[in-house]
Amino acid sequence: MTDATHGTAEPAEPRRRKASLYASDAHTRRRNAAEKRFRAYGIAAIAIGLFFLLVLLVTIVRNGTPAFTQTFVTIEVALPADKLDKSGNRDIEEMKKVSTFGYAPLVDDALAEALAQAGIETPFANAKDLRQIVSASVAAQVRDAVLADPALVGTSHEFRLLAASRVDGYMKGRVTRESVARDKNISAEHLDIVDQMIAAGLVERRFNPGFVFGADASESRPESAGIGVSMLGSFFMMLVVLALALPIGVAASIYLEEFATQNRFTDLIEVNISNLAAVPSIVFGILGLAVFIQFAHLPSSAPIVGGLVLTLMTLPTIIISTRASLKAVPPSIREAALGVGASKMQTVFHHVLPLAMPGILTGTIIGLAQALGETAPLLLIGMVGFIASNAPASFADGFLAPNSAMPAQIYEWAKRADPAYYERAWGGIIILLVFLMVMNIIAIILRRRFERRW
Amino acid sequence: MSPLWLLILILVLAIAGFAIGRTRAMASVDDHRKLHSRPNYYGTNVAMLAFAPAALLLAVWVVAQPIVINASVSHLIPETSYEDAGALNLIMSDVKRVAEGLDVAVAQGALSAEEARSIRTEFTDVRARLGEVGVALGANVDRDVLRAAQAYRARAATGTWFMTAAVLIVALAGFFFAIREARGDFRARNRVENGILTLLITAASIAILTTLGIVLSLLFNTIEFFRLYPALDFFTRLEWAPSFSGRGGASALGILPLLWGTFYISIVALLVATPIGLFAAIYLSEYASKRVRAFAKPLLEVLAGIPTIVYGLFALLTVGPLLVSVFGNGGLLGVDWMGGGRAVMTAGITMGVMLIPFVSSLSDDIINAVPQAMRDGSYGLGATQSETVRQVVLPAALPGIVGAVLLAASRAIGETMIVVLGAGAAARMSLNPFEAMTTVTAKIVSQLTGDSDFASPEALVAFALGITLFVVTLGLNVLALYIVRKYREQYE
Prior knowledge:
Chain A is mainly alpha-helical.
């Protein structure tokens, strides 16, 4: 109920006889308090919104930054010729016959040797028990290095080996002695050794380029998982979106804005575009699954299918912004061109379109950014549920070979049971957000720089 | 000739046609000013007529040929060897793989073309022969599959031959027709511009095609689903328990628990987003100084630009555990309402945060559209600013705000990643907001990911869920737009 109407409802009765201009009466005070309260609600609402934003960003940065560093064990590994190259003629094909199982004992021995040199006592009699300190991928790492440079055989070489995910978690505070009590991957004794290795300088945490550029790894080796391959998947998808959505979107907008007469067909298109802009993204995923994979038999999980689906999803965004920037070009430009004898088509392509281009590009970049972060349709066309471990071999493979995409990879990591993968998911989000931020900043700069006010 | 080479060939023809058409038109007049159009239009006309019809034919052929051949070859498989359409599909994909294997073998010289045509399972171990050239087959090739594969190859070869001929004939016909036309008095520009206009219209029609594709793909699969599973059960059953082993029968696929979860989570989200968004919009449009507005509005909108997977992870790893530490066993409140991090509240609150900028931006626009004269009138009667907002601005903007909330609701219902990660997987009809429930979108994802068989009701149900989702969100959007549009008419 309101005071204003209340007042007018009983005009005859002079209620505030003792009203003074200098001292506000109870009624006015109440109204002013209500005013203040109302304003406080508004401020609180904005504060809550900004608070959520802040919490979100802080959470992402705090949980994600550890993913960029990784614990490494630096040790000297002896590479005896009698084990790695029995014939002694350094023939690569022959050396390839020694599998990672042949290399693993070397790493074990090297670890034991390094511990002995640093004067660290181990409770383990068997050097093999030390293996849990380093990642399961180190044997392959040593093998790759040897195959890349056969001259290493017979020498000792210093390797920087990935530490096991549990050791990494211990360094980052995720794993404690209590939590490893029932963990069969590592024991408290291992952590004691790690403590001493840190003191001896054998174990250190440093920037891990493998996370940004590397491939995904299996469920049991979070320490060697990276987002690089799925980044390539996203890149190829964005190429498809750019190559299709920009020309189609611009052509459609030109038709609708410059040529279409008001009729049923035009109305139908307009209604469709505005509806498509509001269709949930998961429905586009169903469309992609049914049309591109089931009907057209395109390879599932391939970036080209993802690109096609995201193109259809991005089109409405691009069309809406392109039409807005075409509309912003003043009619006088068109009239002048028509006046000197240009055809309608020439007017549009020679004069209107170039003037609208900055706006179109801005809209396109924003559309691309939206497509880059979209996950739901990718789940349906099969870009999750497998390990994107191989970078595409060729340009065509980039489009056709199964791959993941950045948001799908993040989802994949978030689903895995090992908490070490959560850290990688947050780290992946940081990379994704950096991409989005850069794209949006470019869009803003384009707009500031080139947008003309008529 | 492979489609790619054919495409390159007609492209070359088009480029040559451009040059010839241009030169011919220029040569046909003594003075360039006598040309009807600029010289390039004559060239473009030739290129267009040589390329466009042929390329269109090529595209249609490439799409249609496998379908036609597939249909004709599948007759070769005896009906006794398969039970239903799904099994036939599997056999046909074997046939295709064998056919491709034979192609590879011929290309590598492991088999002569004659051998590939006449090879018989009775005399040769086809699987081993194909294995030698790097084509791995899952099972031994049986006689019918091999025969079908050979027929497939033969028909594909004939089809490709006809395609090459047809495309080249069309391209050459267009080419020579346009060359003959390339004379000075021909209105080349009009022809070219009509061609471009056709292209523009086609591009605009893609929106219609997309909608059509969505509706048809949902509809056909839904009809297929209802053939396997009664529609009445789907819409009225209160239980959702798909079986993963058998086909049909054992599964209970009622949509109601999913709809309940969807609406419950959406309502929680709107209860978070609407007051915050609305008050933020009111403050930004009525009270805030220019500087505050220029700072707070874009920052709030950042919330809308963050990908939903980020919110999903935020719900799963931050909001969920936080809520458990307050409402869960041994939590701050000392109540044991919440069993796990995944719950209606978890997803709802996170989604509410995501929706704040939707509500605030749309409401902001609508509040700004209320004419200043109405506010001035209210101030003139002695109302304070908040009284003006409550009694004049908000009632005037109400239809628009309702529209904004409906749009936000439609987003909430269609949102996938937050509920997939934050809401849980158990379909449940309960009133406790701290329990895990699931939604339509989450179930679409779980039924369609993985190696599901698309012919089973457990997979097809996703399409029925999809069409329900599509209809509900579309209905909400149309309603919202209708309300907003109706309101706009009042003040313009």
